[in-house]
Design a protein that fits this description.
single chain, mainly alpha, 4-stranded mixed sheet, elongated
Length: 296
């Protein structure tokens, strides 16, 4: 059951990433068709933007997340139990020991960053360390280490970059349409009017579709990290109890940002989560995550 769920989550993620990538290229095609009346130029421009944008995002993402969250790196003597838990689980996961950070915040939460295991870091709020016992802390640490081992941080960073590129290109396309920049393509008698309308709809709706794709990838990776955590600890009870305590706490993480909300083990804005529909959520419902863990 555990390994079947892990494989199902991996297959869903691959499918979502393929759909995401196709969406990026389709937007490039739509821009090229609308403004240059060909099928190639927009795709080429999109690929050039991606080649510049993604490496920069990957290089700076980790340090940005840690700085924005107010995380402070600690050493073993600062919290021996936490260091022991992280060290034990990173050995079980067969990855280098990640750097350990603490965020001074009463809300119980945690996140991981690092585009590859050699650059990994895990951060825990003081609220989490105050409320959880060792078994529950191991469940949370295993979840975060699984994100690093499964290369989820890299995947989500690339997803964020893809959304950024789609929004950037779609905005340029919308402005060109608004100010008449698409006249050359629009007045060409060889243009198919149905394809023209399809291209315009794609340019307008693509940013929305990209957001949906990014959130779907994020939710799926949370399920996978939960299952992987049980694989590491061989004990779903610790993570179940930790998620229950985290979900029942009313505090929000003070220095969390919308851009980094998907990286936390639980959505850090409790009030907004109640207003958001499941479609717009960065995390699966906590009840669903606990139910899946109970079935393992």
């Amino acid at each position: 059951m555990l390994y079947q769920q892990i494989q199902n989550n991996k297959r869903k993620t691959v499918l979502l990433v393929v759909l995401f990538s196709v969406l990026v290229l389709v937007v490039g095609w739509a821009i090229g068709y609308l403004f240059n009346n060909d099928w190639v130029s927009g795709i080429v421009i999109t690929l050039i933007v991606l080649a510049i944008y993604i490496p920069i995002t990957l290089k700076t993402a980790g340090s940005q997340v840690l700085n924005m969250s107010g995380s402070k790196e600690i050493q073993r003597e600062d919290h021996p139990q936490l260091f022991g838990v992280v060290e034990e689980l990173s050995l079980a996961a067969r990855i280098p020991m990640p750097k350990v950070y603490i965020v001074n915040d009463p809300a119980p939460n945690a996140f991981a960053t690092g585009i590859k295991p050699e650059k990994g870091a895990v951060a825990f709020t003081t609220g989490l360390l105050d409320r959880l016992n060792r078994e529950e802390l191991s469940g949370v640490a295993a979840h975060e280490i699984s994100h690093i081992r499964n290369y989820d941080i890299r995947l989500m960073t690339i997803s964020v970059a893809l959304v950024g590129v789609i929004v950037l290109i779609a905005n340029i396309g919308s402005r060109m349409m608004l100010f008449g920049g698409g006249r050359r393509g629009g007045n060409n008698k060889n243009n198919n009017p149905i394809v023209m309308i399809l291209a315009i709809v794609l340019v307008i709706l693509a940013p929305l579709a990209a957001q949906f794709a990014k959130l779907a990838v994020s939710r799926n990776r949370e399920y996978l990290a939960d299952a992987s955590a049980v694989e590491l600890t061989r004990n779903p009870k610790g993570l179940i109890n930790a998620l229950t305590k985290i979900s029942q706490d009313p505090n929000e993480v003070k220095d969390a940002k919308e851009a980094t909300a998907s990286m936390y083990i639980s959505y850090p804005f409790k009030k907004k989560r109640k207003k958001n529909s499941a479609l717009w959520s960065t995390h699966p419902p906590m009840e669903s995550r606990i139910e899946q863990l109970q079935n393992m």
